[in-house]
Amino acid sequence: MKLAGIELRRIALPLVAPFRTSFGTQTERDILLVRVESPAAEGWGECVALSDPVYSSEYVEGAAHVIREHLAPRLFAADSLTAARVATVLEPVRGHRMAKAALEAAIIDAELRTAGVSLASHLGAVRDAVDAGVSVGIMASVPELLDAVAGYLDAGYRRIKLKIEPGWDIEPVRAVRERLGDDVGLQVDANTAYTLADARHLAQLDPFDLLLIEQPLPEDDLAGHAALARVISTPVCLDESIESARDAAAAILMGACSIVNVKPGRVGGYLEARRIHDVCAAHGVPVWCGGMLETGIGRAANVALAALPNFTLPGDTSASDRYYATDITAPFVLEDGRLRVPVGPGIGVAPIPEQLDQFTTSTEMLTAGKT
Ligand code: NPQ
Ligand code: MG
Asked: For the domain bounded by 5-116+352-366, which CATH number is listed?
């Protein structure tokens, strides 16, 4: 395809409730959307970077800048660009995986819309619906947490993930496990809030039969995760540490994790995400699809990915109303605790123009001449 233009659109979506993690509290999601124009179709991609570089080093303003100044010019200059070649064309630019992923996603969408093929079938999906889990933020008190968890169980979620940090870990987990009984899957996510010196403390989670503990230690501490995994019985899952299929292979071989959270944005796109799925499958390591509070654009693509065979644990693929009262696409809704995999061409959804405009804070058009 020949890229005719790339639109960068910033939106601000209010969250239904503040979301607190070990790196801070957010009340609104500031999101960069990418729309590519090819002669035959347009395509949409969502950049998962946050406003501030607190989950990873990337952030929205930085992603917009690197797209405008470094990535878009390389794409415009490439002749016979295909989605499969995007990563290679952008490879000279180090890092910036979330920015690259958004561009690749938009180009895949445009390409598959042109071909009339769904992203799910393109990636190799084997399910028409995926189990939905929910990520529950840090709360002011255990009773407040139990109320929130009860609401999600009523809604039908099939797995609960609690955000933890030092001072909010053993007791909330004990309380939620008592409330859930042994039937509902429970897991925790520390977003790098501990150190290896906390190993004995984290071993106190062992009795609660957790599915996994996600990213307890800093992202660059694979050796620490391997040491921790030898001390605790809860399986260790990595999120922030895994930026590529090679990272996943290394972490598995080191014993740093036995489960992987796959987030397409964090690893540079859906095609690298599929390679992680494949390398984990080859090692007998289950994966699940993480989430970055996506709009319907990113959510649709994540649900397609989560339909691949080795996505055997429920993901953070929640219904749209977990985060947003109004989405920019038709909302994803729970159906018996599952989300239906879109079947239309490309990602199978598109922004509803009035809703998109309602939340848009800026737009910018990049063209071959202009960059
Ligand atoms: C995680 N996501 O798995 C991330 C962290 C994350 C669903 O737990 C605004 C506020 C955006 C907090 C994006 C989930 C966020 C956010 C991602 C937390 O680590
Ligand atoms: Mg995580």
From this structure: 3.30.390.10
